[in-house]
Amino acid sequence: MSKNTQHLRHILELNLAMLFISTSGALGRYIDMPVPVTIAFRAILAGIVLFLFCKWKKISFGVASADRFTIIVGGVLMGLHWITYFYALKMSNVAIGMLSLFTYPVITSFLEPILLKTKFQKMHLVLGALVLFGIYFLVPDFSLENSYAKAVGLGVVSALCYALRNLIMKTKVSNYHGSMLMWYQLVIISVMLLPTLFVMDSSGIITQWPWTLVLAILTTAIGHTLFLFSLKRFSTTTASIISSIQPVYGIIIGMIFLGEIPILTTIIGGTLILTSVVIESVRSYK
């Protein structure tokens, strides 16, 4: 396989990961349980699936003592990212929830040179600004009195947690299998949120289990593991900007399954975001 063909395959694999992860928008809106309970079941079920996968593939669960703290912090950040993101979805719609989260490529482009000591690329700021400009068209009135503005705020907090998690996990993906790393993060999230199953109403799982299972397996176990693998092949910022196609997928899924039809400004914002994805894909391909 030629280098160009292999690189194209990696881009396609990253886009497949984004398609799977983008189902979180519609599922987060549809599943009728308290957010912490939903995330707890998501982590527990996905953790079981990944544990069985790692056992089947004979993937080692060994972690160097020097890396344990980093992986724990990554798990905590992942849990905070999911919780704030799902609250943003509940308070708005798929478009607002997903696109407020996608300030994270901009945040990543600022943090990566600082945390990972990589070379600062001005083009990433330009593309990040284009993504941000696209989000501007999708966000309604920024009045703090409406739930959409609060949802955007939670989305940005979720974006910060996600950017930090990706950056610190970037330092570990070359040393460990992606599925094993994701499993440890799911264990951490499960431990964090296990008490919510006893203090909040978790009876909804009786009727919501099929969709929770899809969220756990397709969105989480498969989608996020594929994304962790992509961090081996691209810089975190490049992967983040390419993954900006995720809201486009999510909005389409929301249209089909939830009937949330985007208005003109949503289409304009989505077009701007997709433009940044195409530009970065071409740049990384070259």
TrEMBL record:
* Chain ranges passing through the membrane: 12-31, 37-56, 68-88, 94-111, 123-139, 151-168, 180-199, 211-231
InterPro entries (alphabetical): EamA_dom, EmrE-like
Which keywords does this Swiss-Prot/TrEMBL entry list? Membrane, Transmembrane, Transmembrane helix
Q: Which Pfam families match?
A: EamA
Cleaved signal peptide residues: none
UniProt keyword Transmembrane present: yes
What range(s) does the EamA domain occupy? 16-138, 151-279
The protein's name: DMT family transporter
Q: Which organism is it from?
A: Aquimarina rubra
